[in-house]
Amino acid sequence: MSTSAASSPRRLTRKGQETRQRIVGAAADLIFEQGVARTTIEEVRAAAGVSSSQLYHYFDDKPALVRAVIEHQSDVIVGGQETFDLSTLEGIRTWRDWVVQHQRETSCVGGCPIGSLGSELAETDSQGRDQVAAGFKRWEASIRRGLREMHAQGRLSSETDPDALALALLAALQGGLLLTQIERDTTALEAALDAMLDLIARRS
Amino acid sequence: MSTSAASSPRRLTRKGQETRQRIVGAAADLIFEQGVARTTIEEVRAAAGVSSSQLYHYFDDKPALVRAVIEHQSDVIVGGQETFDLSTLEGIRTWRDWVVQHQRETSCVGGCPIGSLGSELAETDSQGRDQVAAGFKRWEASIRRGLREMHAQGRLSSETDPDALALALLAALQGGLLLTQIERDTTALEAALDAMLDLIARRS
DNA sequence: GATAAAATGGATTGCGCAATCCAAACTAGC
DNA sequence: GCTAGTTTGGATTGCGCAATCCATTTTATC
Fold first, then answer.
1. In chain B, at which end, N or C, are there fewer CB atoms within 10 A of the end residue's CB?
2. Same structural domain for residues B20 and B80?
3. Residue B173 pLDDT greater than 50, yes or no
4. DSSP symbol at A155
């Protein structure tokens, strides 16, 4: 969690931090549900139960709020990722099952919180894009840690490049989530992850 | 290319068809560059060199125009896809190289024209989402045709399910394109496609 | 408990942009 | 060449929404 950002208030009261967090949380939910462009400041204001001036007290403008949301979602996702151990085939399967199950439980709605943001901002907000890229880097590093461990312990063939595999796994997940979100069906996500699992098994 | 759509004018003059096409092309370019929400009717109007009333003569409203753009992009992509033969490992490698090269040439800007649209519309325009899903289905079918052929001719092991593999390949491509777009670097795309190629080779 | 800073309330402003309207000028088909 | 339908011009409207403003109340610090 990189602090920084919101210019004006340098010292935040405990109460202020709570309010700020409430705004970020509400914004994150709304943006996850309907994207940045279709989420209005008014909606965020109402959902967070704050006044307009409060919102602009904590964030310079809408882009600044979006930046805080990206940071928030990165933290949530990377935090979640680190509860899984990807250094064994069994662990990767457990992770795969969790991801698929989670999509089923949410009716395949929303896709990946970071991926969707990245797609929307990529060509219009370079600062936002950089931030999403940094989030992906952290995520990738987390996956890589597992595969490197697997490789070091000889459970991945020595010719295998664990770093490239980590990137491929993240890509397969992203593509699977996108197709799953659009088709409202986990088939694509399962096919993508199972293909990667099969590859990893064959390289064991 | 499914016709239909724009309510009002049932009979289009040649001139009318040209104008309509010009609008769709301009809209497709702009939307590819900056997304649906950030593309204004005024921009499309100027780029296509038409008047406001012309635009609303051919399309009921902005969502209708977006629908025409989705249709257009689906046609372009599926058309392009069909110039490749995915029934041999060699052919798939050629396709992989083309995709990567294309991203390099465009500086990794824009991502996938359909994927980006799908991501933006998924939760806010169910009609648009359905249309993107249909586009992906066509794309998937095109890939599947190659892999089924490969399977039938014994160049893919009999235990392999070519349909699931086609879906996984499309997902890897989408995820690779998304990461590549955000990181402005083709490494992820290459890792994703190469992983799938390796899997296919190992299943040959 | 005084005072400076921070947090909150809510009305208001101004503009970007989708969409409408009323013509006028073409293009078919008979 | 007449007329019904199609295509085009461009001004205008109206609203959604980001952002500003001026208070008032609360919290920290000494």
1. N
2. no
3. yes
4. S
